[in-house]
C-alpha cells in the first residue's frame, strides 16, 4: 500500500512535472501566436501603404503622359531626320536611274 504522507510516488511526481511543462508550453505558444499575429498585421499595413503609394505613382505617371501627349499634339509634326534621309536617298536613286536610262 502506498504511504499516506506528503511524499509522492515517482509516477505522480512525473505526472505533475509533465502538467507544469504542458502549461508552460501552452503559455509560450499563446505568446508566439500573438507575436505572429502582430507581425502579420504590420505586414498587411505595409502592403496597404505600398498599394497607396503605387496607386499615387501610377496616377502621377498617367498625368505626365497625358500632358506630354497634349504638348506633342499642339506642336507641328516634324519628320525624323532618319526618315528625311531615307526619302532623300530614294529620290536621289530614282533620279540617278532615270538619268542613266536616258544616257543609254
What keywords describe this structure?
104 residues; rod-shaped; mainly alpha; single chain; 85% helix; 2 helices
Structure description:
The protein is mostly helical. It has a domain at 10-76. Helices cover 85% and strands 0% of the residues. It is built from 2 helices and no strands. The radius of gyration is 42 Å and the shape is rod-shaped. The mean pLDDT is 84.
Distance N terminus to C terminus?
136 Å
Strand content: under 5%
Sketch the major β-sheet. none
Oligomer: single chain
Envelope shape: rod-shaped
Give the low-confidence spans. none
Estimate percent helicity: over 70%
Number of strands: 0
List the helices and strands in order.
Answer: HH
In short:
The chain is 85% helix and 0% strand. It has a domain at 10-76.
Topology:
Layout lengths: L9 H65 L6 H23 L1
